[in-house]
Design a protein that fits this description.
The protein is an alpha+beta fold and about 200 residues long. The chain folds into two domains: about 5-90, Roll (Sulfate adenylyltransferase), CATH 3.10.400; about 95-200, Arc Repressor Mutant, subunit A (Orthogonal Bundle). Helices cover about 45% and strands about 20% of the residues. Strands 1-4-3-2 form a four-stranded antiparallel beta sheet. The longest helix is centred in the C-terminal third of the chain and has 18 residues, at about 180-200. The relative contact order is 0.12.
Length: about 200
Amino acid sequence: MLIKQKQLDGILSGKISLAFRKWKNLSVKKDSLLKTSIGLVKIADITETELSQITDDDAEQAGYDNAKALISELEKTVNGVIYKIQLSFHSPDPRIDLRQKSQITDVELEELTEKLLNLDKFSKQGKWTTKVLKAIQENPKLPAVELSVKVNKEKEWLKTNVRKLKNLGLTISHEPGYTLSPLGEYVLSVLPEKTKKSSGV
């Protein structure tokens, strides 16, 4: 579930507590946590609704001026069920503290290396983690569409897999592009030797 930055800021301040979506298939679950730029957002409840049931108060809680503006936005999607989603700020993103580390223990490094090796192992595209990390290091804030050319992958593949690296605390997203986090810089500096040992070289 994508939430615009303006709405995220409202959620963080407490001014926004609702979201409305028109989906063919429900893409979030009650009590789930969404990772966003402001931290973790909790989905407190989800109910089906109709355009006629949306009030001005609902719209204001969703960050719109009135019901008419919200309904106009929802009508842009032709097919689907309208969902009324209650949400709130839950907590800071734990990845932020993680990615600021410029060094970690040997045990933490082994665990992180194992996760990277598994990403390579179970990828249909073959080994990619080190290649993508190096590409980001060498091309900071390069738009995803251009960075994808550097690694010879499709743009959507790149965005999906960089998100996996971000979840490990190794990258930071920008508009546009990405950079390595302090943790990412450290891991990349020691990764070749660690992966050699893990592969028995």
